[in-house]
Each structure stands twice: as C-alpha cells, then as structure tokens.
Amino acid sequence: MKKTQKILMILVIFLLFSLAGCSSKIDNAENEKLVKKVIEATKSVKSTNVKIETIQNFTNPDQNVHSIIQLDTSMTTNPFIVKINRNEERNGQKIESMLYITDDTVYVEDIKNKTWKRATNEKFREGYNGKRKLANFEIVTEFLHAIQNKMKVSENDLNYEVTYSGSENSVNKVFSKILDSVQTGTEELRKKLLVEKVEVKYIIDKKTFLPIECEIKAKFAYFKDGQRVISVSLDEEFTAKFSEINEVKEIIIPEEAKNGKLIEADLSYK
Q1: pTM of the predicted structure, to 2 decimals
Q2: According to the UniProt entry, where is the signal peptide (predicted)?
Q3: Total domain count, the chain
Q4: In contact, 213 and 238? CB cutoff 8 Å
C-alpha cells in the first residue's frame, strides 16, 4: 500500500512539473501571437495622434538636472507627414518649438528667432528618423517584440495589459533608441551608465490590437573600476498615449515653413 502511495505521489509530482512546463510554452506562444497581431495591426494605421512625455532626473556631485520633454505629435501616411509640437522644461527654463517631417524634407522652427529652416539631404534627415518611428508605432512595437519572451499578459473586457520587469541587454538597447528619438545629445551620457532595471506597461485594445498606451521606467547606475558610484544616477520615464487613430485630419505645413531657409549643415537643436 505504501509503495503504491509513493508511486502515485511521484506520478502526481511529475504531472505537475509537466503541466508547468507546458503552461510556460503556451504562454510564450500566446505572447508571440499577440505581438504579431499588434505589429500587423499597426501596419494598417493611416493616421494618429500621440502625446509623448519623458522625465529625466540626473544626479551627480556637481549638479542635479531635472528635465521634462513633451511631444504633441500627429501623423498621416498619405501623404506622409509628422507634425511635432515640442515643449522642454529643464531646471525651470522652458523651450517650445515646432517640427514637420515628410518623406524628403525636415522643417525646423528656429527656437532663437522663431523663423523656419528646412533640410532635404539624407544625412541631415537621419537624425529625425527616430521621431518618425515614434509617431507611426514602429519603435513602440519593436520594444514590445524585445520583451515578448519575458512579458506577462493580463486582460479585462476592453484591453490587454502587458507588463515586464528586468534588465536584458536586448531590451535596454531598444529603450535607449526610444530615448534618443525623443532627446538627442544624451547618448554619450547613457553609454557611461548601466541599466539596473526597466519596468514596462502596455495597454493594447482587444478589438483592434493597437497599442493605446505605453509606459517605460528605467534606473541607470554609474560604475567606476567595477564599483558603483552612489552619488551618480539617472532615472528616466517615458510615456506615449495614442488617440484618434485613423481619424486625424489633413496636416497642413505652413507656408513660412515651406519657404524657410534651406540648410545642409546640422542643427544644434532637434
């Protein structure tokens, strides 16, 4: 009798481990299926509005820097135009500027004298490709793809909620691309810092499979000679909220932007 009970116990334990293994595989398969549906859904988007905000807190012994960048963005695909109203607040100082991006031209408002400049050369326009990808879901879905094997998915009647917490290198690389798209000039700073943790939350519409909200938080630490320097750190928060998907009206580029001075050199503000 005891021998029979032991055999039954072993079988039960084996079955539980087998089910756990199958459940993990099924979750990964379902995650992959969901990500594919999201990517396919975003390819059919013809227009959208997206409000993007990044909050940066950088601390070191010499100074503390607190900055907030808000991008109020609209995008259409036929014709392809991205309109960005950019607001930045850094240590109490505020800067506002406008930007238009098409397939062959970038129109930039000169923040110093409120005049317009435009550029058509490919090398110059490469610096703005990230902003294009933010507006048309490309980077957002790229990040979702990077976390698909580690993400957790829950759902309610209307939405899927995707969450992730970790520090995989592949995830960190895509997150850095997102931050570089919003604010250039901080790439070298982040190269000297190591990501400690990234936390992610996506809200995906169950009916359309389109992302309607994305929130990413990251903590960076500074190491010197293998030792962490507590006095230096960087915290970043990124949020993107999509609205009026496929309902954005025609974007009109103002004549003063079209007639702006044609430049070929790089600009110090992006």
Answers
A1: 0.80
A2: 1-29
A3: 1
A4: no
Q: What distance lies between CA 42 and its chain's CA centroid?
A: 15
- Within 13 Å, how many C-alpha atoms sit on residue 225's CB side? 0
Angle between helix 169-182 and 138-147 (nearest 10)? 160
How far apart (Å, rounded) are the C-alpha atoms in residues 244 and 258? 27
Scored b (16 or more CB within 10 A) or e, 192-206 reads: ebebeebebbbbbbe
Please state, in angstroms and as integers, the Cα–Cα distance from residue 265 to each residue in 99, 117, 120, 247, following that order.
17, 11, 11, 36
Q: Does the residue 3 lie in any domain?
A: no
**What is the helix (H) or strand (E) element at residue 187, kind and residue range?**
helix 187-191
Rounded CA-CA distance 68/90 in Å is 7
3-state secondary structure 163-183: EEEECCHHHHHHHHHHHHHHC
Count Cβ neighbours within 10 Å for each residue of 21-60 and write b for 16 or more, e otherwise: eeeeeeeeeebeebbeebbebbeebebbbbebbbbbebbe
Antiparallel, parallel or unpaired: β 106-109 and 116-119: antiparallel
- Phi, psi (degrees; rounded to nearest 5) at 102: -120, -175
Condensed to tens digits (0 to 9), the pLDDT of residues 98-120 reads 999 999 999 999 877 889 999 98
Range of the structural domain that residue 188 is part of: 37-262
Q: Give Cβ neighbours of residue 246 (< 8 Å, ≥ 6 apart).
A: 45, 46, 47, 48
Q: Tokens 């691309």 label which residue?
A: 177
| Torsion over CA: 141, 161, 36, 206 (sign) | negative
Q: Determine the Cα–Cα distance for residues 142 and 136; give it in Å rounded to an integer.
A: 11
Condensed to tens digits (0 to 9), the pLDDT of residues 40-64 reads 999 999 999 999 999 989 888 888 8
Cα 209 to Cα 92: distance, rounded to the nearest angstrom: 39
